[in-house]
Amino acid sequence: MSEGRIFNFSAGPSMLPEPVLKRVQGELMNYEGSGMSVMEMSHRSKVYDKIITDCEANLRKILGVPDNYKVLFLQGGASGVFAALPMNLAANGKADYIVSGNFSGGALKEAKKIIGDGAREAGTTKDLNFTRVPTQDELDLDPEASYVHICYNNTIYGTKWHYDPETGNVPLIADMSSCILSEPIDVSRYGVIYGGAQKNMAPAGFAFVAVRDDLIGDEMGITPKIWSFKTQSEKASMINTPPTFPIYVCNCVLEYLLEIGGLEEMKKRNVAKSALLYDYLDSQDFYTPHAEKIDRSMMNVTFRTPNDELDKEFVAGSVEKGFTNLKGHRSVGGLRASIYNAMPYEGVEALVDYMKEFAAAH
Ligand SMILES: *Cc1c(COP(=O)(O)O)cnc(C)c1O
């Protein structure tokens, strides 16, 4: 890591790969001889058109997005897409939501504003304080729903779906904000995948959506044009000014990922990082992990010390070590280490060393 930079365990916005930051720095004043920064450039210019076109092409390539899917870049983040989903896809007024944490609950709340009680909770692990996701047996799915929505990686509770729920003919939609690009996925199993960019893709400023062709086109009359999957796909996400700079940085991240070996390589690194932390957690009894083993997240690792006081002390001590953002989300408490793609292995090693030291001292 460069001089003065610290290990930032933030849940988002989060670390970006250093080679990407350096590239952006190098291109900032005069992007490829254009005489200006990407921030200052018309989104309708030839130079920018190449950036957004490359970004989409690279995202398709790296994720293996099938040709019968549209890829969109939309402002409003993942929360904006929460509202867009029912407007675009729930023409019959029915949609099932599996609530496995904070964001899946948030997606359901937004859907209820649009289609009322037609948006249904079709399973939840709230009673277990979201220590795992529901099993197939615990789901109560409506075969007439327009879609079933899941949050694939639960950022706050540190859990992840390790299976795809069987939904019959009903398309599965997955919020992948906090796990996109962390490992290969089979996009064709989902009707839609989407997510905010600020965890693994880019700085904050947009959400990506990959939506299967046949699901587009039956939107509600009230759908604002900027939230219309149909209009946005016809206009290549350029109905209005897109978040030009974050999309540019996203393309730099994608090119970097392709350079290092794509998602297979990224997965290898993420498995190694998360195993280091979980193996330590499993080898001791000072810290208690929050998530059940079967559904542990590779990106957000949640745990606690024996009490709230020690959690606070742990956080204070971690700052002295040059770490930041290890405090758990207020809704679950305890501690959380978000170890997204850009967190180096050395960062997790240093964290585990500190955890050992702290446990020994208390
Ligand atoms: C961060 C996050 C969100 C919220 O993203 P915004 O872009 O801030 O709206 C939604 N879902 C998940 C899983 C997240 O991690």
List keywords for this structure.
3-stranded antiparallel sheet; alpha/beta; binds pyridoxal-5'-phosphate; 14 strands; 362 residues; 7-stranded mixed sheet
Question: What report would you give on this structure?
Answer:
The chain has 362 residues and is α/β, with parallel strands linked by helices. It has 2 domains: 22-258, Aspartate Aminotransferase, domain 2; 261-361, Alpha-Beta Complex (Aspartate Aminotransferase, domain 1). It has helices at residues 18-27, 46-63, 77-89, 102-115, 229-234, 244-260, 262-282, 308-320, 345-361, and strands at 7-8, 69-74, 95-99, 119-124, 148-151, 153-154, 159-160, 172-175, 192-196, 207-212, 288-289, 300-304, 323-324, 335-338. It has a 7-stranded mixed beta sheet. It has a 3-stranded antiparallel beta sheet with strand order 11-12-14. A two-stranded parallel ribbon has the order 1-13. Strand 6 (153-154) and strand 7 form a beta hairpin. The longest helix is centred in the C-terminal third of the chain and has 21 residues, at 262-282. The protein starts with 6 loop residues before the first strand and ends with a helix. The mean pLDDT is 97. Pyridoxal-5'-phosphate (PLP) is lined by residues 12, 77-79, 103, 151, 155, 175, 177-178, 196, 199, 207. Pyridoxal-5'-phosphate is lined by residues 12, 77-79, 103, 151, 155, 175, 177-178, 196, 199, 207.
